[in-house]
From TrEMBL:
PROSITE patterns attached to this UniProt entry: ABC_TM1
Similarity-based family: Belongs to the binding-protein-dependent transport system permease family.
Pfam families xref list: BPD_transp_1
Localization, UniProt: Cell membrane; Membrane
Source organism of this protein record: Brachybacterium halotolerans
Classification lineage: Bacteria, Bacillati, Actinomycetota, Actinomycetes, Micrococcales
Residues of the ABC transmembrane type-1 domain: 101-313
Name of the protein described by the UniProt record: ABC transporter permease
Entry superkingdom: Bacteria
Transmembrane feature ranges: 100-128, 149-170, 190-211, 253-274, 294-320
InterPro entries to which the protein is assigned, alphabetical: MetI-like, MetI-like_sf
Keywords attached to this entry: Membrane, Transmembrane, Transmembrane helix, Transport
Membrane topology per record: Multi-pass membrane protein
Keyword 4Fe-4S: no
Amino acid sequence: MRYALRKVGLFALTLWAAVTLNFLLPRMMPGSPADAAIARLSQNGPVTDETRAAVEAQLGVPDGNILQQYLAYLDQVIHLDFGISYAFYPEPVSGLVATALPYTIVLVGTVTVIAFILGTLLGVLAAWRRGTWLDALPTVGGSFMNTFPYFWTSLLLLFFLGYVAHLFPTFGAYSATAVPGISWDFFVDILYHAALPAVTLLITSLGGWIIGMRNAMINTLGEDYVTFAEANGIGGRTVALRYAARNAILPNLTGFGLALGGVVGGSILVEQVFGYPGIGFLLFNAVIGQDYPLMQALFLMITVSVLVANLLVDILYGVLDPRTRR
């Protein structure tokens, strides 16, 4: 319990630092959030002070001293009110995030969990059967797949399976004729559109889990307690899973926590290539459109998700390896 409370306290302190830094960074940047909008207006002629004040009021540019702005910002964070989007005006930032978040969680989150489980099991198998084809096939195959970057794999699949073979759709999360709702047809249509992005993420991430787990497993198999368990006649499957794999999985578990926290951030390049309307696609458009409120909300959400994932992994570490509690 003391171990968990220490981790929760560290999480709270880190969260406050992240929220404060997210408040300070945009204000340390040169210019103001209204400059981008005013720059577009200035192309048609000089902008008066009255016009500038109207633009700032319309965009909700904060006023008052830095302490007042900080307190108002904390109140907005608590109530999940991040203002109005500049690039998608007059849509509220919270509404845009709420619309895009489920797509990213379903796509990236599901693929991340599948890749971790499948890669970890294949890594255990490769290490336990090292020197055989059961070791060479997943190791060499994983290393080969891991060399392809996300955007390159996305473009290859999009071109050959989308434009050439016409097997999968090439844009969006569902068909233009589909009616959003809770129905089997709409669910199948969403899966159909998510197939290529999901395969891309699975191909490019599976190799890392396999190789990482295999290397950690081989090191663990050389430990004395594994040799002692084998000498006592314990079955090979029990030794592999309950003794070696349980300790070897800890480094992979750390990586899984980071990957799971990064799920909320989505995969910017993959979502952009396929036009998939997730958080990554939204973040890309926010940067291009200099949408400061939307960027600030997305950065904060990604940071919080990583912190929460790390907290859960730290607590799980204490369950799997009691030595970490000390």
